[in-house]
């Protein structure tokens, strides 16, 4: 009898420890996601305070995205070698220190440098989270629930960042959008050191393929740099850098095929689920990030909303996503399977973006934005956990860190691509209409309409690709 009680006690303790670990992983991830969005609403205040030009202001975002997207793959592999807990806690420390530097910045150079350091810390933290999560919850049903919780935090954090950015900037000042990370980061770091299981890792002696790391990091950073700078440079310069990035990727591929201990085993791309899920994610995230960015601009520049009101208008998204992902998503995936749930979610996203394509200069939040936002939120709450589960199911345990880094990398690339392309399309359409004599408000709204319609096509493409590639085999 005593042995049974002790066994049950150990099981209960292990269960508590795993879910406590999930909370810590979510808290660390929430910081990095918030900072990817929280600056959006505060950009005008930062520009006025530090004297940024219009083109220079973009580097407040770009300086974070470039190292973040470029280092995810390397950080994921290093996590497999040195231990994912070590990589996660080190990333939290770097990110927290960089956030304080951002918060106390009084010059353009200091803020941009600190944002770049934030990107490094964010990559270290984010790259290993999915690998740790899959190891913590190997049983499929529990894993689905854990992924749903993690995805809820990530998805809700993106929209919550828009609200917090507006609220903190208007109530205090823009410095606090970064300083708020200090207490969160310190508490998360202490909890991670105490609660997370220690992982020894394979050891640096196994090799991280440093030449390959240099090639892929350079290729990814250059790719993100090209994407976020679309519209700022000439066509010839953009094509030249794109070709250079492609050459680096080809060099990396050749290196991985020949290296004794490759950074990224090419067999990962032989997994239909992993490769297909990453491709679908690029298109889906491009759509959703485009909605957040263009949607905020529509509310501010067409409907005349202020910073706080814009953030408040986005609150239904994180609430719906959080509520659905914390319960409904996992149960639905368990009942119908991730493939069917993913297709249903992508269909709702496509319909929601189609509705936004009708938003005009005479539109309103209640009629043109809120219904579409609710459809997008429900669709994303269904699609993201299903897609994450499909992607990670295509990786072996020893490749979990690399697969996690790859999945997060395609998320950053998709978000950067969506922001850059849709913003350029909207601006080009608006400028063309203004040149033809159209009114500013009407031209601006039509530019956003074009962006939303293109995003609708991209979402439909993601649905078609998922239906064709991710279908379960009997």
From TrEMBL:
Record Gene3D superfamilies: MFS general substrate transporter like domains, Multidrug resistance protein D
PROSITE patterns the record matches: MFS (PS50850)
GO molecular function, one term: transmembrane transporter activity
Keyword terms of this UniProt record: Antibiotic resistance, Cell membrane, Membrane, Transmembrane, Transmembrane helix, Transport
Superkingdom of this protein's organism: Bacteria
Name this protein carries in UniProt: MFS transporter
GO cellular component, one term: plasma membrane
PANTHER family given in the database record: BLR6921 PROTEIN, MAJOR FACILITATOR SUPERFAMILY MULTIDRUG TRANSPORTER MFSC
Subcellular location: Cell membrane
Membrane topology: Multi-pass membrane protein
Swiss-Prot/TrEMBL GO biological process terms: response to antibiotic
Organism: Streptomyces cupreus
Domain Major facilitator superfamily (MFS) profile positions: 21-474
Record InterPro entries: MFS, MFS_dom, MFS_trans_sf
Transmembrane segments: 21-46, 52-75, 87-106, 112-134, 146-168, 174-196, 208-228, 234-252, 273-299, 305-327, 339-357, 369-391, 412-430, 450-470
